[in-house]
Every structure is written in structure tokens, then in C-alpha cells.
Amino acid sequence: GFLRITDRKKDMFKTSQGKYVAPSPISAAFKGICPYAGEFIVIGEGKPYCVALVGLDGEAITEWAGRSGLAGKSFAEIAHDEKTRELIGGYVDILNAQLNRWEQIKKWIILDQDLTIESGELTPSMKVKRNVVETNYKDKLDALYT
Question: Which H helix or E strand runs over 3?
């Protein structure tokens, strides 16, 4: 008999299973867990499960790369390296342990570039424009559902 508001109505989405997911608290929780995350965009509108796009914090990941034998590599090379995938995967597993089953991130990819205001993916106040990001990364997102 109690009402609990978890997020703005327009920011929530409904999966094909009929469950509502609020991506902002999930994103905030991941950024709180993972010191290497710049952005964490949860996608799943009308889909059977949630997936995520992980944007890396350039400074933090470059520092980690230097300690992990990836010194001198470009940001894109670090993002595509298997060691980086294992590192981020551990944090995704920690996040999933805190979420309801329908909110859990089943698949994810690491972006090899930062989201920018110039590309239209971020607002001037540095908020993610979800619809633009979904359009720009449509091919990668579709691959996560195959």
C-alpha cells in the first residue's frame, strides 16, 4: 500500500517482459563501484534484458593501464584489451549482485571513445542524451541482442 518513486517517469523504460527499469540509479551505483567508469548507459526498452555501454574515465584507465602492462597503448587499444574487459566485468558482476534479476546487465561493451557534446551525445551540462547514444551505437547494441 506504499508508493515508492525511484526515478523520473520519462527516464524509466519497460522491458519486453513487462518489468520497469530505472537506469539512472543503476548507472550511479556502477559509477560508485567502479573507479574506472566515466559513463554507464543502461539500455533495454522493449528488449528481453538489459545491456550497457561502458565509457571509461580516460585518466583513471590510463593510470591502471600503466600498472597493468598496457603502458603506451592508445585509449582505443586499452578499451579493446582483454585485461580491461576482465577488469570491468568484475565490477559489472558486483553491480549485478545488488540488482533485481530483470535489472541485471546481461551483456555490455566498452566504448573506445568518450561521449562528447560535439557529437550530440551529451548536453552542455554533461548529461547523456540516451536517444542519441542509442542511435549512434545501434549496430553495437543490436549485436548484444543476438
Answer: none
